[in-house]
Amino acid sequence: MTWNDFWFGAKELPFWAFSIRAIILYSSLIIATRFMRQRQISILSGHNHLVAAGIVSLAAVRMVNSESSLVAGVAIVFVYAAINILLSYLDVKFPRKVDRHATVVIENGKIIRKNLKDVRITIDNLLSQLRLKNVFSLSEVLYAVVEPTGKINVVKSSQSLSLTRKQMGLPLKNVSVPTILIYDGKVQNDNLKMLGYDIKWLDARIKEKGIANVEDIFLAQLEADGIVYISV
Questions:
Q1: pLDDT class for 19, splitting at 50, 70, 90?
Q2: Which residues touch 183 (CB under 8 Å, ≥6 apart)?
Q3: DSSP string of 87-124?
Q4: Which of 80, 97, 114 is the last residue of a domain?
Q5: Distance of CA 112 to the CA centre of its chain
Q6: What is the pTM of this model?
Q7: Of 2, 17, 109, 217, whose CB neighbour count within 10 A is largest?
Q8: Which residues belong to any copy of the YetF C-terminal domain (predicted)?
Q9: Nearest CA to 187 among 201, 173, 176?
């Protein structure tokens, strides 16, 4: 084996050559990551994901394929890093043009349907993320914001904080999992039947909110405290 084979690849390489090539590639990845700095690890925007996936795939191929060029692999790693640094700089200067930005999807307990569509989140995804935040009633939410990372942060209204009852020494209410009654203008009959209610009961709750047609409702949900939450 010659040094040319080591750097540019050959049909066969000894085990020690594979090991050294792997060390060089891994060291290059570490150095490139240091150049990209903490923001790439903590924020992980769209282009960060692409660069991470590309670099990992590239390094894996170079580590196991003896015919691949180590020089080309190292060069591509640093080119990837340079492109990512440039995109990150542009993202800082023009955040709304290069990558995603924080988006409010619930404000004062009301779902903002346009923003929900913009961030490509379904109502089931939203409700599951809220449950992970220990939020089971949409009426408790003052703001819900989808961050650039894709995570959802929630600010609850002060009167809805469950800790208040504990601090006052009051017994907790019996709670159940909130259930969707209407979604996108369509009554969820199975859920209604499971709860032991009928369409007449639902119509009465809708009229109490001053809404005439079911088709006008985006989401209606029976919440843990027995309140019917409605968002048009």
A1: confident
A2: 123, 218, 219, 220
A3: HHHHHHHSHHHHS---EEEEETTEE-HHHHHHTT--HH
A4: 97
A5: 17
A6: 0.49
A7: 217
A8: 94-222
A9: 201
